[in-house]
Each structure stands twice: as C-alpha cells, then as structure tokens.
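#struct-help
A.M.: can someone run this one for me? Single chain, 412 residues.
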Amino acid sequence: MTRMAVNGGRQMRIVATGLLVAMAALYIAARQFEHVHPAVGFIRAFAEAAMVGGLADWFAVTALFRHPLGLPIPHTAIIPRNKDRIGETLASFLRDNFLTPAVVARRMARLDVAGAAGRLLAAPSGGDDRLRRGASRLIADSLDALDDERLGGMIKSALTQRIGQLKVAPLLGQLLTAAMKDGRHQPVLDALIRWAAHTLEANSAMIHQIVHERSGSIMRWTGLDETLATKIIEGLDKLLQEAAVDPEHRLRVKVEEGLMTLAFDLQHDAAMQARVDRIRDEMVANPAMQRWLDGLWQAAREALLRAARDPDAVLAGRLGEFTRQIGETLRDDPGLRHLVNRFARRVAAGTAARYGGNIVTLVSETVRGWDAQTVTDRLENAVGRDLQYIRINGTLVGGLVGVALHTLAVLF
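D.P.: on it. Structure tokens below:
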C-alpha cells in the first residue's frame, strides 16, 4: 500500500471525525438558544440526527476492523476474526472468475496476441522499440542471474544426450554416396595421391634401410638390396604419378570401389554401424570433448549476453531483419495470426487448468499466514478513504432526515 493512500485515509478520518464533533457542538449551541427563534429548532434537529447518523456509521466502520472503544461487543472486529475465511473466499473468487480454463479461453479470445507481437517485432527504432529494449534488458539480467554452472551442466548434458542418440554411420554413408555421385570426392583423391607421393619421397631413405635390414647377406654383398629398394620406390612413384593424371586409373578405381563399399556398409551393415557408434561414444566421453562442450556453452552464453545488452547491434544486422520479417508476417497474415492466437489461447487455458489450483492455494495460504493486524491494516489502508466518506455521508444524510422529521412534527 502506498504512503499516499495511507495519508489520504488518515486525512479523511480526521475530516469525518471533525464533522461529527462539529455536529455535537452545533447541537449543544442549538439547545442553548432554541427558545430564541423557532428556526433554531431545525438546526438542533439537523445536528441531533447528524450525530446519530455519524455515530452509527462510525460504529459500523470501526466494527469491521476492531472492537469500538476496545469493548468486546459481539459481531465486531469482523475482518480480524474472519481473515481465514476471507482468504478462502478471495481464492474461490479468483478460481471461479479468473482461473478456470473456460474463462481464460473466453478472455483470450478477445486478445490479438499475434497481432500485438507482430507490431512489436516489426516496429522500427523508437516508439515501441522501447518495449524491445526493456525486454532485452530483462532477458540479459535473467540470463546473467541464472546459475552458470548448473545451467551449463544442463546444456552440456542435453547436447551429450543428443549426440549420443545421433545415428552417425547412416548419415556418413549418405554423405559419402552423395559426394561420390556428384564427383566431389575427386579433389580429395587428388590430395591423397599428392600426399602419398610426397610421403614416399620424404621416406625413401627409410625404405632403403628396411629393405637392407630384411635382405639376405648375399643380396647385401652384391648390392641387390639397394637396387630392389630403388625399384620399389620408382614403381610406387610411377603408380602415383599415373594415378594423379589419369581419372580412370586402376588405383583410383580400386579406391572408389572401397569407398562405395564403405558407404554401403555405413548405411546397411549393423556391425559397421556398431563400430561407428562405439567411436562416437568414446569421442563424447573424452575429456577433451567435454571441455569443448563447456567452451561452446560459454561462448554461446557470452554471445547471447552481448546481443541482449546491445539490442541496436542485433536489430541492425541479419537477426534484426529476420525479426522484423517475422513481425510483418504475424501482423499481415490473417491465417498465421489465427493459428498463433489459437495456440496462445490453448496455452493460457492449459496453464489455468494445470496451475490454477496452485495459485488459488497460494492466495489462501498467504492470507492465512498473515497475522490479524497485518490483514486489518492492509484492508483498512486500501478502502479506508471510501469508508470515511461513508461516515461523512451518514452524518449529512442523518441531519437531513432529522430536519425532515422535525418539519413533519411542526406541521402536524
């Protein structure tokens, strides 16, 4: 309750009480001078009836919140004695009039949620853009306030689970088949052949050494081991050079046959798929992979925070254009707007059906948990100003009734 409302209620209480005191003073004065002129009798009747009306309404208003004059009069201090029932009644009122699925759906049917969202997203900078800036700050603050370790663990667990459920082998087989069908594997083969040629040249000395160690003494004594190693290297180099320039070379054909077999096995061989799945699981369980997932989450979180804290930069880029296009589509497409509004209506009604009872219970238990003085103070501050008007009106109306009755007595 705001301080202004509390002060307003206190001021009106002073006015109502002052008016009652004024009527009492006026009544005493009129009784003293009633013999001076017959008109004074009307003043006395007005003041007398006004006191009665003011006192009656003072008693009624005070009896709502406390015992008048501290006396334990029956049926007074009504609100403190019935605060639990008030909480239950308030909760029942909310449940029956606001939180039933039928009521929520009926009220949601009057709202154009999609149209409002579309106008908001499609609005240019300025004007309604302030709402987006506020929403941006809210998102940034909410994301920043979340438990980073717990949320990161949830994200990493979800990613790990999704990767673990991914059937990698059939996907790789389909990709390899499509690549070979379009000839996209040829640059890879060219690169492999060049790599093999360079590797052969760089390791020629090692090949000579291996042939020398595994040759017999006669071959080493006659020098045939060196000749054999040279022939092996020259033969392999010639094979690679021919394969590099001839697309139909037998080496390329053999490699392509092996790739086609691999692609088929990846898609249809259960044993091959199981081996790929084991490799996938080992990669996911690897600590380096887990560290990579942690870094991926941190990078995504920091990017989201930067975007949310700088809405101008986001709205000026591709994401901003995409957002505006979504807003224009929601705003201008009646069919899509109808679908979104129906979805929003169903979500709201489902939320009311699922959580309405919890909200009602929360209201009643909250009121039940308040002490009687808290309930009394809050309600009195909320409606006290209007209740003091009742006292003022009762005083004035009572006075007018007194004048009317005195007039009838004089006339008849």
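A.M.: thanks! The mean pLDDT is 79.
D.P.: also worth noting: DSSP finds 20 helices and no strands in the chain.
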